[in-house]
Amino acid sequence: MAMRIGELAERAGTSVKTIRYYDRIGVLRPEERSESGYRLYGEDALDRYRFVRAAQAVGLRLGEIREIIALRDLGETPCAFVVDLIGRRAAELDAQIADLAALREELRTLDRRARRLNPRRCEPRLICHVIDPEI
Amino acid sequence: MAMRIGELAERAGTSVKTIRYYDRIGVLRPEERSESGYRLYGEDALDRYRFVRAAQAVGLRLGEIREIIALRDLGETPCAFVVDLIGRRAAELDAQIADLAALREELRTLDRRARRLNPRRCEPRLICHVIDPEI
DNA sequence: CTTGACTCTCCCCTATAGGGGAGGCTTTAG
DNA sequence: CTAAAGCCTCCCCTATAGGGGAGAGTCAAG
Lengths: 135, 135
Description:
The structure is a homodimer.
Chain A: E1 3-4, H1 5-12, H2 16-25, E2 32-33, E3 39-41, H3 44-57, H4 62-73, H5 79-116
Antiparallel strand pairs in A: 1-3, 2-3
Helix pairs in contact in A: 1-2
Chain A binds a DNA duplex through helix 2.
């Protein structure tokens, strides 16, 4: 009935290392251990695994996912917590996107400058007048 | 005439650790060492430092910056190399921005779903129906 | 002469999500 | 019975740009 780690990994389409790691950080604990210490998982482990991946796919970190699961295991509905997490992640994403877009714009400026400048007029005193123009 | 590391760091507005690190990875080598092993820098170290920061600010990594500086120290004009680097970094940025925007869109979907779903109808069998709806 | 401020090298630590491999049991098939 | 395949724990490693601190040498002023 119970799966060992290799079977779970294969059915989940992942590596044994990953499942062991999930056990270690507490997002996917085995139901029990065999007498010889082997991790034994039930069928629901596959659902759990799928949940972890779904949560990762929307940008949550394993630490946050562990907290969601912990709430669930305490019998609470983690909805409010999840909505809050998602809101914060969204704000982080917005900031990150804005940063990258600004950087992208900066690169466009550099590209225009590079087209305007003549490589032969590149003063050896400076390292690169494209990046550091000093007027 | 020659500055020691503390003075350079202060005038550059950075930390001694950073200057030492730049020496170690080869982006900002001291002109020489004193008898007792102290790093000694000339005035141009400040320009170099400024260049490194300018290059970092447009998204280049220290490893790439080192290559630009190495080219320069070989007497070549690194313009072509820099333009190439900038082009590649721009492409990376575009891809990254697209990824983040897709993730952001995904979060918007989740947010809409969370508003539609009733937390009380959250089935205990699933961990969180906002993230992993199974339907 | 001594104290305090600098400086040196060396080593560990940060976050993330695992990967690689060693050395040693356990289980299963033939 | 034996060999292969699985499994265990433990430890190091990845990339980035440094930060923290130990222990020891150096330099200036009082």
